[in-house]
Amino acid sequence: MRRTASLRGLVRETQLAPGRLVEPIFVSEAAGATAAGREPVAAMPGVDRVSVAVAVEQARTAADLGIAGVLLFGVPTDKDAEGSGAWEPDGVVQLTVGAIKQAVPELVVMTDVCLCEYTDHGHCGVLRSDGVVDNDATLELLARVASSHARAGADLVAPSDMMDGRVGAIRAELDSDGYTDVGILAYSAKFASAFYGPFREAAGSTPAFGDRRSYQLDPANGQEAIREALLDVQEGADMVMVKPALAYGDLIHAIKDATGLPVAAYNVSGEYAMVKAAAAAGYLDERQAVTEILTSLHRAGADLVISYHAADAARWLAQ
Ligand SMILES: [Zn+2]
Q: pLDDT of the chain along its 319 residues, tens only?
């Protein structure tokens, strides 16, 4: 059964397809002020922070390659304690959603909903006077952010903060604001991970003090990750996510089984950077390694994969 390429193709259990990939895009106000509309991210070769116009170009390229959707992150210039830039109607994400929806209406537009790129302390929620994240006070703000993305035209909002109860709060706000058709992709099993390092440079979201272990999951806990996903389902999530992906295949599988919902795997910045660095050093073949990684995530049970390699993978698949 493995003798020829045709035989192997005939019995291959897992197929890669661009229509199951999502490309993350960092839209930055500072990049918008540069001539090229781009600022490179040092730890992620090939990934830039981009202006609204370049984000639209990238979205169009993604759609031409057959990629299903984009996931937008905003990188504002001004930050404050509440992260109020996150719900500005003319914020960088809101403007980009509108521009992409106009230029490439068939593309699924997802938006990251969090405060960490917008707060001057870099945490995912507002802080109490003792410096601890105030879970319940944060919910109202996240709901405000999600509703502003829906108003701009987002198809799906994706809360990544890991506050308890945020999916329910966002669902209630979207419904009461009339956005009943806007779905929620919940970052349900988001682990406190070393693999986010390059992203924090890209998004300018490194916490000014402490870390995120008081709200993100302990990498040692699988049962808790499943409970988190089930809670999000109860609160109204339409899709659930496991993040990071590569070290969490067991949970992609378990959460798919437990929820029956579409499951997204986020092939994160550190996973991308590892492959890039090893390929640049001549230690790995990038194309083969990426193909194997993406295939393994689908084999584990992911319906869609969010990856910085999405455009490369789509090009390779077309060859
Ligand atoms: Zn965050």
A: 999 999 999 999 999 999 999 999 999 999 999 999 999 999 999 999 999 999 999 999 999 999 999 999 999 999 999 999 999 999 999 999 999 999 999 999 999 999 999 999 999 999 999 999 999 999 999 999 999 999 999 999 999 999 999 999 999 999 999 999 999 999 999 999 999 999 888 888 888 888 899 899 999 999 999 999 999 999 999 999 999 999 999 999 999 999 999 999 999 999 999 999 999 999 999 999 999 999 999 999 999 999 999 999 999 999 9
Between CA 168 and CA 181 the distance in angstroms is 15
Ligand 1 centroid, distance to 206 Cα (angstroms): 9
**Contact indicator for 110, 72 with CB cutoff of 8 Å:** yes
Question: What's the gap in Å between 124 CA and the centre of ligand 1?
Answer: 4
Active site residues: 190, 243
Taken in order of first residue, the domains within the chain and their CATH numbers are 13-318 (3.20.20.70)
Q: First-to-last CA distance in the chain?
A: 24
pTM, full prediction: 0.97
159 Cα: distance to centroid of ligand 1 (angstroms): 9
- Find the 161 Cα to ligand 1 centroid distance in Å: 5
- Give the C-alpha distances (Å, rounded to integers) separating 139 from 13, 36, 165, 239: 41, 37, 7, 19
